[in-house]
């Protein structure tokens, strides 16, 4: 599908998302910061803010490998989807647009070389 660096970068984002889902906000933040260095802060600003918010909400669990607290519930967007469904859809869209942007980047590189 893509080159190895693109696949590795996608794995980095998936790893950060999984850490976040597990309540390991400090660890997730570190991995999101690595991804931000590769693709720019603007792409991960919301992720980093959410990690910070939930670390503050659960200071005893922030960074704990065995965190038992789930993130606070998000306000419904009125779509009728559960938070988990919203997050899954958001992740799906993030990965779709990431792959699309990589394709455009490669095309642009081909055009300008």
Secondary-structure blueprint:
Blueprint: H1 4-21, H2 25-39, H3 45-57, H4 83-112
**What is the tally of helical segments?**
4
Q: Write down the Rg.
A: 16 Å
Largest pleated sheet: none
Look at the helices and sheets and give the structural class: mainly alpha
Can you give a write-up of this model?
The chain has one domain (4-112). The chain contains 4 helices and no strands. It is 67% helix and 0% strand. It has 113 residues and is mostly helical. The model has no long low-confidence stretch (mean pLDDT 78). The protein has helices at residues 4-21, 25-39, 45-57, 83-112. Helix 1 runs antiparallel to helix 2 (25-39). The two termini are 22 Å apart.
In short, what is this structure?
The protein is mainly alpha-helical and 113 residues long. The chain contains 4 helices and no strands.
Question: Main traits of this protein?
Answer:
113 residues
